[in-house]
Write a structure and sequence with these properties.
The protein has about 425 residues and is an alpha/beta fold. Helices cover about 45% and strands about 15% of the residues. The longest helix is centred in the middle third of the chain and has 23 residues. It comes from Halorubrum salipaludis.
Amino acid sequence: MTEATAATPAPDALADVLADAPFVRLVATDDGDAVAATGLLARALRTVGTPFQARVSRDPVPDAGDDAVAVTVGANRGPHAIPGSGRPASTTAFEIARALGDDPDPVVALAGVVAAGSVPGTDGSGDALEAAERAELVRRRPGVALPTADLADGLASSTLVRTPYSGDTEAARAALAELGLPADLDDDAHRRLASLVAVDVADADGASERAASAVERALRPYATVGDAAPFETVGGYADALDALSRAAPGTGIAMALDADPSDGLRTAALDAWRTHGLAAHRALDAATTGRYDGCFVARVDLAGSDHPGEGDAAADADAAPDAAAVLPTIARIARDFRSPEPVAVAVDEAARLLAASATESIGLGDACRSAAGEVGGDGWGTADRGGIAVGPGIEAADEADEANRNGPEETDGDITGALAALREAL
């Protein structure tokens, strides 16, 4: 199935459909923007008393069944879709929620905007930013967008940046110690932190020209005020939702849906985000990389990448990151901070390939489907990201519901042919 199969309905029109629906099935792509949008829609449906089901899939296919209305979020499929291309899905979901009579959480919407790679106030998110600022839920300040107040923890695990201390909490702590920051950070301290991160991203070994601009979305964040959100910044919220969309999608939807998440839910979300981010950076540290025309490839061994540094053992000793969940994040980090080419590909030993593109014009998801067809594999994706699995033992396993996520089974297939086919398709 190709990506573009439906026209995007106006928010008011889709709101009318949802208002009259006896039951709504929401299925989102596995990214932070789609999860934020799904949370906004689910909360609005709850407000108007419409029963719903929400789940996450790497390649969502609408399946209404009976009299239910199916809505795909993050993919342009089916009669009722919020694609997420052109502008973040969360901005459209914010408008739909308002049209349903709900008072949607603008911080969740803005987190989705950042997760989509956009900037609050642009790409249709002006209303959400205005609502958040009017209610004094956010404040723009200097610094770095992190989900937690623990700077070392945040810098080591964040997937919004790639520094020499990414993936290593103790190294991040040592870098911070050299700054001599006060316990209570003022704006000057936040500026010094931002300067450190910006320089370390741009000067890191192997940093691409794109890295200097990619780090910008992590700088000068919108801090959340008081109890306005479960994370310290809007960008940190976005980073957490993006990790959760693959590592723990049920937790991600719960975070976006719950107006007042419990301490236990927040802790679970941070634990999943931390494990995911550390695993992605460490795998990229140990990757074997190669450059091709239009494509940068990182071959990783996630089974051997769990090597917590000193001080991380308590948090990571039992971590067993799911390769199917971590590979897309590795590809995105490589695209933003390491790849001199427009497409970055992460390949693991289980015959899986995940790719991320710097532009939607490539149509990466369709390219992955085409390449997979050439080698008898399974391809999926959206305009700017996609994946391929090949070899015996392929299973659909593209559903990630609110209870669990299981990636494709380990295979002994050769991914080399799929990579060659993808390069040809690009």
